[in-house]
Amino acid sequence: MNIAPGKIGTIPFDQARLDGLMEEAGIDVLLATSKHDTQYLLGGYKFIFFAAMDAIGHSRYLPVVVYEKGGPDHAAYIGNRMEGAEHQNNPFWTPTLHAACWGTLDAANLAVEHVQKIGKAGARIGIEPAFLPSDAYTLIRKALPDAKLVDATDMLERMRAIKTDAELEKLRIASELITDSMLATIQWAREGTTKTEIIEQLRREETNRGAHFEYCLLTLGSSHNRAASPQAWKRGEVLSIDSGGNYHGYIGDLCRMGILGEPDAELEDLLAEVDAVQQAAFSKVKAGTLGGDMISHAEGVLRASRVAAYTDFFAHGMGLITHEAPFLMTNHPVTYEGTYAAKPLEKNMVLSVETTMFHPTRGFIKLEDTVAVTDSGYVMFGDRGRGWNRGGA
């Protein structure tokens, strides 16, 4: 279904901010091809048929949003043929729609034709290299020999770093749903319940609450292995449950602790050490604080702790994906540069803050929390269950 150019709908993002970032990055026309950035530019829309997969036939799904700097009347969405029905029910804001594709090459060809039609065949075109298949890239490169292809990844990450109120609400709901699901799962699990069974129960809890389950990393007892297995929970053992799920595409990613029985004094002290590092990080979360200052303060508290030798601190941005701007730490553990360490935190940035203890005998003890930056400090999402949560009898 090719829809002839029509009226511009309500633009679901800050157009002036996007235009400014494109100008700064030297980009005239944007070709967004990742699921998360096309979703962002379409105001939260993601085609359900390809929500959990990309491959179909001999190719794969490749959504494309074409946006010209300062020219929303030239914007287009290129999608799968079945998305014409989506447009009939809830029209896309872009004045042009090509719901006509089954693979990468037809999508890339339509993107090229649209760029040519709007007179930008020799422009500076922003692409997402990590999310543009090689066959589509080759087609674009050959079809637009006079164009300069520019990596738009950083520009788009900067765009998404400052969340709207609507995005913050989705992140809050996602965190609340994940927290409720983890606490219910801990309470459900009994002596003899296996890791595989606990993970499957968490999947049901999240799904029943309206979240989309993505993963669960789980440990029992003294083990640091977080993969599913037949290992069973035993009385007196700790449980760590770290889950990621999403609500309308926005990520909830938290970790809470369980105990089968009552925690002894040592366990109480160990979790308190973990929380002390978390609280140190939170104390520096505020608009205007350098990201690196927050990191160094928490790391300093950890270095002074008696558990420093086997404990790690990490913080990262999150939103539509689990690691996005602000990037605060370099290669720790995910391989990217901490490009935001020397930049101030900004209002409506969202951070995941996590402290992980690999105790040699008591096991894997961790807290992971989600906070949104405010002018005066922060707001925490899913702020409960941060102590020892009791498993079922």
Briefly, what is this?
The protein is of the alpha+beta class.
What secondary-structure arrangement, pairings included, does this model have?
Blueprint: E1 2-3, H1 15-25, E2 29-32, H2 35-41, E3 55-56, E4 59-60, E5 64-68, E6 71-80, H3 83-89, E7 96-101, H4 104-117, E8 124-127, H5 134-143, E9 148-151, H6 153-161, H7 165-188, H8 195-208, E10 212-220, E11 238-247, E12 250-259, H9 265-282, H10 291-303, E13 311-317, E14 350-359, E15 363-373, E16 378-381, E17 388-390
Parallel strand pairs: 2-8, 6-7, 8-9, 12-17
Antiparallel strand pairs: 1-7, 2-5, 3-4, 5-6, 10-11, 11-12, 13-14, 14-15, 15-16
Describe this structure in words.
By secondary structure, the protein is of the alpha+beta class. The chain has 2 domains: 146 residues, Creatinase/prolidase N-terminal domain (Creatine Amidinohydrolase, Chain A, domain 1, 3-Layer(aba) Sandwich); 226 residues, Creatinase/methionine aminopeptidase superfamily (Creatine Amidinohydrolase). Helices cover 32% and strands 26% of the residues. The chain has a 7-stranded mixed beta sheet. The protein has a 4-stranded mixed beta sheet with strand order 10-11-12-17. Helix 1 runs antiparallel to helix 6, helix 4 runs parallel beside helix 5 and helix 7 packs across helix 8. The longest helix is centred in the middle third of the chain and has 24 residues. The radius of gyration is 23 Å and the shape is globular. The model has no long low-confidence stretch (mean pLDDT 96). This is Peptidase M24. InterPro entries: Creatin/AminoP/Spt16_N (IPR029149), Creatinase/aminopeptidase-like (IPR036005), Creatinase_N (IPR000587), Pept_M24 (IPR000994), Peptidase_M24B (IPR050659). It comes from Mesorhizobium amorphae CCNWGS0123. It holds the Pfam family Peptidase_M24.
